[in-house]
Write a structure and sequence with these properties.
heterotetramer; A: alpha/beta; Rossmann fold; 2 domains; seven-stranded mixed β-sheet; 13 helices; globular; C: alpha/beta; binds thiamine diphosphate; binds magnesium ion
Amino acid sequence: MDTNILIEKREIMYRDALNEALKEEMARDDKVFIMGEGIAERGGSYKVTVGLLEQFGGKRVFDTPLSENGFTGAGIGAALTGMRPVVEILFIDFTMLILDQIVNQAAKFRFMSGNTARVPLVLRTQGGVGNGLAAQHSQSLEALFYHIPGLKLVMPSTPYDAKGLLKAAIRCDDPVIFIEHKLLYMNKGEVPEEEYIIPLGKADIKKDGSDLTIIAWSGMVPKVMEAVKILDGEGISAEIVDLRSLVPLDKMTIINSVKKTEHVLIVQEAVRRGGVGSDISSIIQEEAFDYLDSPVKILGGLNVPCPFNLNLEKLVIPQTDDIVRASKEAVYNK
Amino acid sequence: MDTNILIEKREIMYRDALNEALKEEMARDDKVFIMGEGIAERGGSYKVTVGLLEQFGGKRVFDTPLSENGFTGAGIGAALTGMRPVVEILFIDFTMLILDQIVNQAAKFRFMSGNTARVPLVLRTQGGVGNGLAAQHSQSLEALFYHIPGLKLVMPSTPYDAKGLLKAAIRCDDPVIFIEHKLLYMNKGEVPEEEYIIPLGKADIKKDGSDLTIIAWSGMVPKVMEAVKILDGEGISAEIVDLRSLVPLDKMTIINSVKKTEHVLIVQEAVRRGGVGSDISSIIQEEAFDYLDSPVKILGGLNVPCPFNLNLEKLVIPQTDDIVRASKEAVYNK
Amino acid sequence: MKKNTRDFLVSLYTTMYKIRNFEEQAIKLYRDGYIRGYFHPYLGEEAIATGVCAAMDRKDYITSTHRGHGHCLAWGADLKIMFAELLGRENGFCKGLGGSMHIADYTKNNLGANGIVGSGAPLAVGAALGISIRKERQMVSSFVSDGSTCNGSFLESLNLASAWKLPLLFVIENNQYAVSTRIEDSTGEPELYKRGAGFGVESIRLDGNDVLEVYNTAKLYVKRCKNGEGPFLMECLTFRKSGHHVNDPGLYLPKEKVDHYKLHDPLLIGKKHLTELAGLSGKDILEIENMVMAEIKDAIDFAIKSPEMSEENFLKFVEEY
Amino acid sequence: MKKNTRDFLVSLYTTMYKIRNFEEQAIKLYRDGYIRGYFHPYLGEEAIATGVCAAMDRKDYITSTHRGHGHCLAWGADLKIMFAELLGRENGFCKGLGGSMHIADYTKNNLGANGIVGSGAPLAVGAALGISIRKERQMVSSFVSDGSTCNGSFLESLNLASAWKLPLLFVIENNQYAVSTRIEDSTGEPELYKRGAGFGVESIRLDGNDVLEVYNTAKLYVKRCKNGEGPFLMECLTFRKSGHHVNDPGLYLPKEKVDHYKLHDPLLIGKKHLTELAGLSGKDILEIENMVMAEIKDAIDFAIKSPEMSEENFLKFVEEY
Ligand SMILES: Cc1ncc(C[n+]2csc(CCOP(=O)(O)OP(=O)(O)O)c2C)c(N)n1
Ligand SMILES: Cc1ncc(C[n+]2csc(CCOP(=O)(O)OP(=O)(O)O)c2C)c(N)n1
Ligand SMILES: [Mg+2]
Ligand SMILES: [Mg+2]
C-alpha cells in the first residue's frame, strides 16, 4: 500500500504519458503499429513517439511521406484487415487533407457493411492556438469530426487523462479521433505507475462547485482552472466539467451538474460559430430547460482565423480573465 | 404593369433558375467562368449548366478531370488573380476531398494577407438525402463549412431564392459555398423575367404565424410547408423562417420571430449532433432566453450514415409527420 | 491439351458470363423498380475482374470501385446474397444498408466497392501494409478506374506502395471515359501505365478484353508481389458496353468505338478461347450459359422473396452504432 | 564581355546574397525574440528562386512554399516591409497577420508562401488557367518542395496543368529531405523530375545551386510557356544549409552531404561566375555585399521601430471580416 501511494505521486509530462500509453499498447498487442511524419527516428515533433522505433522496430514504427490522405487511408485499410494502426497527423489543420478517408471511409464502413466491417483506427493529431503559428497551424477543428456519425472524439487535458484515454482509444473497435493540444505537451501531472484505462465517454469533474457549471475540454481546462481560483476568491463556486471525450458525450454528468448549479458556461477554444459548445448548449437547453436560471453562455474563439502577431493571437481565443468575466455574467445573468 | 404581372407569374424549375443566374452573370462579366465534372457538353448531372458551353465557349465552360482538390485550388488561384470562378463539385460528399483548399486556403487568404487578397469564388455543390444513393452520396455537411470563418454559406429552397442568391454569390468578393439539394432541382416556382438579386444574409419568412417559429433551410423547407398546412388544420399557427443563407445568418429575423411566437422548432436534414441547428438554438437561447416559453427544439437526422434501403432511408431524416409531431411538442412543451 | 486447361478456360468463361448475365438481369430489375440508387454496370469489362481474380488466392485481398459487381462476382460472391444486397434486403452482404456502391464481403477479404472514385486505392495500400507488417505471403489487387488516375488518392497510393515496396497490384480499368469525359481531355498522358514509372513502379498496358492476357499478366505479378518484388501496375484497356449508369444512354460514346468493341467483346474473345484452345462446341458453351442463367434466376427469386430490415431492427442497429 | 552580362551576373549575385544575409539576420532576430512562430530558412537554396525569378517578367506570377522568404526577395519584395511582416508589424505585407509562412504580395503577383506543403501548386494552376482564359502573354512559376511531390495536391496539379496545356513552370526544390526524412524513403522514384513524363509534362533535372544553370533553363521554359507550349517541370537539386526550421539543429543531415554542399554553395558558385565570367575582384564583391548588408540593416531598424496593429484596429478588422 505504501508503494502504491508513492507510485501515485509520480508526475510526468503529457507527452510522456502519451508515450507510455503507446508503448504499453504496442507491447500488449502486436497488431498495433504507428506511422506519421518524423515519428520514428526523430520521435515526433512533440516527442510523443520517442523510443518506439528502438523498442518495436521499423516495421511497426515508421515515417511517412507527406501523403496525408494516402497514409491515413492506408491506416484504414490496415484496420479493416485486422491491424490496429495509430496514425499521426502533425497538425489538425492538415486533417483537411484526409477528410474523405475519415468521413467517407473510416466513419462509414461499419454502418455501410451492416456491421461486418470494423475500423479500429486511432488518428492522433494536435490542435489549438499557441506560439504564433498563424492561421494554418492554429485551428481547433473538433466540431467537424463531432458532426460525423461513426467517429469517436477524444480531447484530453491532463497527462492522466491522456494516457488512460489513448489506451482506451487503441482498444476501441471504431475509429477514434484523438486530439492533443500543442500547449499541453510539457504540462506535468500525476500518472500512476500501474496500468489503467479511462473508458471513452466519461467526463471528469475537475473541481466541485455549486454556483456555476463550467464545461471545457483540452487546452481550455487549465485556463478554466486558473479562472476558477479567481472566482473562488470572489465567492463564486464553480464546478468544472472536463468532457475529455466529446463523442461519446457524457450527457448525464453534464445534466446532473447543471441541475445542481442552474448556471452554465461553456468555454471553447474553437471559433464560437458552429462549435461543439453550441451543440452542448442545445442539449442542456432541451434536457434541463426548467433548471436553467439563466441562458447557457458560450465563450468561444472569435470568428476569424488566427493572426500571426502574438498579442493579437491572444485576443482571438478565451483567456483567463475572459473566463472570469463570462462566469460572472453567467451567474448574474447579464 | 399588366405585362409585369404576367411576367411575375412565370414558373420555372430550380435547376433552370440556377441556369439563368449563371447565364446572366457570365454575360455580364467575362471574368466569370465555370468548371466541374460533366458540366460542359453534358450540361451537368442535374442539368444546371445546359447551354452554357454553346453560349460562352470552351474557355469559360469546361469539364475537369476527377481532381477535385486540384481544380478547386485552381478556382481559388484564378480568383486570387482577378477571375470569378464558379466551381462545381458533384456531391457535397466529395467536398471532403477539397477541404484543405477551402478551409486552409480560400477561407484564410483575405485575413492572412491583411485584406490585400480576395477570393471571389463560388463553390456550387449539392447535398441531402434522396433516391437511395446511400452513405457516400446522401450527406448534409453544411455544418463543416458553417464553422469556418471566411466562408459564406448559402442554401436556397426555391427557384426564386436559388436564382437571386446565386447571382449575389457570384458578385460576392469572398468565397461562397452554395449548396443545392438533390430533390429540389425539378421543383417549380415563380421567378420573374426581370433581373433581381437577393442579398446574402437575409432570411425569408415563407409563411407568417403566431404560435410557433419553425426554422429551416434547403430541402427541409418544402417538408415544413406541408407540415404547417396540417398544423393549420389543427389550430396551430406556425411561422416559417427559411434561412436561405446560413452565413451571414439573419439573426434579427430569427429573434424577432421568436419574440413573437415564444416557441421554436429547428428542422434540419443533417444529423442532429453538431449540426447548424445547434448553433442557432444556442444563439436564440443566449439572445432571447426570457422570451422562450419552452426549450428550443431541434428535429434533425439520426446520428448514422444514410442507409441504402429506401424505407430505412426515410427513417433517418425528418419527414412531414415528424415535423408535425415535433411542432406540437414544441408548442405544448413536451 | 490438358484437362485442367480446359476446365480453367471454362471457369474463366463461366465467370465472365455470370457477370454479363448478372448485370443484364439486374438492369431489368432496376427498370422494374426492384433496385434503386446508383447502378454502374460492369458490362464490357468482364475480362479484367475475371482474369485478375483467377490469378489470386482467396487469402489475398481486393478493393473495388463504384463499378464493383464484376469484382465481387469474380471473387466468388454468392449470387443470392449479392442480389439481396442490390435489392436492399436484410440478408444481403451489407444487410441492405450498403447497396450497389458499397457491396463488400469483409469476411472473404473483399474490401468492397467504393462510391468515391479513387478512394479505394489507399485502403489497398493499407491492406498490403498489414501484410508486410505481419510478414505474410499474401497480396492485394486494387481495381481502379481511369478517372482515378487523375486523383490524388490514387497517385499518393501509387507512391506509397512503391516507397514501402508493398505486395500490391494496381489494376487500372481504362474504359477511356469518365462519364462523358474522354480520358484524353482529362490528362496530358492518356497512356495511363506511364504514371507508374514516375514513382518507380513497374507498369504495363494490355488488352483488358482478353481474359487470358489479363490472367497471364496478373499471375506473374501476383507471384512477384508475394516474392516481395511489388508493387506493380497493369493498365487494362477496355470499354463500357453501356452508359455510365443504368439511366445514362451513353449517347456521347462515338459510334466507331462502340462498333469496334462490339466485335472485341470479352465474351466473344472468351468463346474463341473455348472453341480454339479448349475444343468446346457452340452447344457446350450454350450449356454453360444456360447453367449460369438458371443459377441467376434462382438467385433473383431468392432475393425478391427476401425481407427488408424492419424499422425495429434498424433502430436497434442505429442505437448501438 | 558585354556590359549587360556583367550587370546581370552582379544582379543575380546581389539577390542571392540578399537572401543569404536576410535569413542570417532574421535568424538572429528570431533568437533575440523579435520573430516568433515557424521560420524555415532558405539558406543554401538561394540560386533557385534567384535564377527562376530573374527569368520571369513581373506581370507573371509566382507561388511559393513554407520556405518562402527567398522567393519573395528574388521577386523583388521591399526589405523593410518583409522584415516588418516577419516581426508581426502593421506595416508588413500582411499587416502582421500572416507572418513568415504566409508572406505574400498580391499587389505584385506574388501569391505567397503557404503553410500547407503542396497546396500552393493548385493555386498556380489557377493563376495559369486565368491567363489562359484571358489569353494573355503571362506565365506562372510554382515553387514546390520535394516532399510535396508525394502529395496529391501537387500531383493533381501536374496533371491538370498538362491536360489544360497551361503556361506553368513547376520548380521542384529538391533539398533531399522532408525535415529528417530522406526523399529516398518517401518515394520509389527519388529522381523527381521523372514524375513529369507520366503526366505528359516535359521535365528536366539540374543543379539547383548553380544560378546560371537555373536561369538559363528557366528562361527557355518561361518563353516556351508564353508560346503556349507549357507546362514544364524543372527539378533543382539542392540542399539545406541549416536545420528544417530555426529551432532544428538538423543533426540528422549526413556529414558527407553537409561537407559536399559547403563547397557547392550557391554563393560560392555565384562568386565564381563573377570572377571568372565578369572579371570582378574580391573587393568588388565585398562592396556588393556591404551594400546589401547596409540595406538589410536599415530595413531591420525600420521594422523594429514599426508599430503592431492595435487591439482596436484589429477588432475593427475582425468585424468586417
Ligand atoms: C471523387 C469522386 N468524384 C466524382 C464522382 C462522381 N462520379 C462517379 S463515377 C464518375 C466517373 C468515373 O469515371 P472513371 O473513373 O473513368 O470510372 P468509370 O465510371 O469509367 O468506370 C464520376 C465523375 C465520384 N463518385 N467520386
Ligand atoms: C500537408 C503538410 N504536411 C505536413 C506539414 C508539416 N511540415 C512542414 S514542412 C515539412 C517538411 C517538408 O519537406 P519538403 O516538402 O521536402 O520541404 P523542405 O522543408 O525540405 O523545403 C513538414 C512535414 C505541412 N506543413 N503540410
Ligand atoms: Mg472510365
Ligand atoms: Mg525537402
